[in-house]
Amino acid sequence: MTQAEPLARVRQNAQVAKNPEPETKRSSKRMTAAERREQLIAIARTLFADRGVDGTTVEEIAARASVSKPVVYEHFGGKEGLYAVVVDREVRTLLDMMRAALTSGGPRELLQQAAFALLTYVETSSDGFRILVRDAPVGSPTGSYVSIIGDIASRVEDILAGEFKRRGYDSKLAPMYAQMLVGMVSTTGQWWLHARKPSKDVVAAHLVNLAWNGLSNLDMKPVLLTPHDED
């Protein structure tokens, strides 16, 4: 064997390693149907949060997933079907967090837990919250942010009704006060989504401070002030 032969063999082996034959190439793993579905949901969730459902197209979703448009239609029937799945997941996530927060404790503690749970959702699922606070498309079968707030308010209503009875107030007003309290918390959550200051703990503490101290000093029969009353 000449000295050139080992050198030639080394070069040949290096070339094979650099450019393997087709049968030795590692085949890329194809996504399962479930994995592809989750990929499309994740991509759409980001786009819906940034641009809304109207500003998002099937073409862009497909392009980001490196698939053709028919793949999106195959899994969800179209953009609206995909949007419905994304919203439904966010609805369930937020409701689970809020319901878990309203299971035990006194009225003030429950109010604190509800406020903290909503702010936690805003903090940990900002994209989801952005999607929920947008208007759902006409005919969408999924719940909207308004319906979520309504569900939470109904739970707060029961708590307030018992508290009103204990304090001698008219319990028939509990539904209205529940809407006011939950509305205050949800609106603050929308503001905090962008502000992010002060911290979640501080915001929750001030929410409870305003709501609870206001409740603890309710007038039995409140009336609107007239210009004469303000003098």
Second rung of CATH, namely the architecture of the domain at 87-218: Orthogonal Bundle
Oligomer: single chain
Total E-strand runs? 0
Low-confidence stretches: 20-28, 136-142
Overview of the molecule:
- 71% of the residues lie in helices and 0% in strands.
- With 231 residues, it is an all-alpha fold.
- The protein has a domain at 87-218: Orthogonal Bundle (Tetracycline Repressor, domain 2), CATH 1.10.357.10.
- Helix 2 (33-51) packs across helix 3 (58-65), helix 8 (145-167) crosses helix 9 (174-195) and helix 9 (174-195) runs antiparallel to helix 10.
- The longest helix is centred in the middle third of the chain and has 23 residues, at 79-101.
- The termini are far apart.
- Mean pLDDT is 79; it is low at 20-28 and 136-142.
- Keywords: DNA-binding, Transcription, Transcription regulation.
- It holds the Pfam family TetR_C_32.
- Residues 1-33 are annotated as: Disordered.
- This is TetR/AcrR family transcriptional regulator.
- One of its GO terms (molecular function) is DNA-binding transcription factor activity.
List the defining traits of the structure above.
mainly alpha, Tetracycline Repressor, domain 2, 0% strand, 71% helix, 11 helices, 231 residues
Topology:
Blueprint: H1 4-18, H2 33-51, H3 58-65, H4 69-76, H5 79-101, H6 107-124, H7 126-132, H8 145-167, H9 174-195, H10 200-216, H11 227-230
Helix pairs in contact: 2-3, 2-5, 2-7, 4-5, 5-6, 5-7, 5-8, 6-7, 6-9, 6-10, 8-9, 9-10
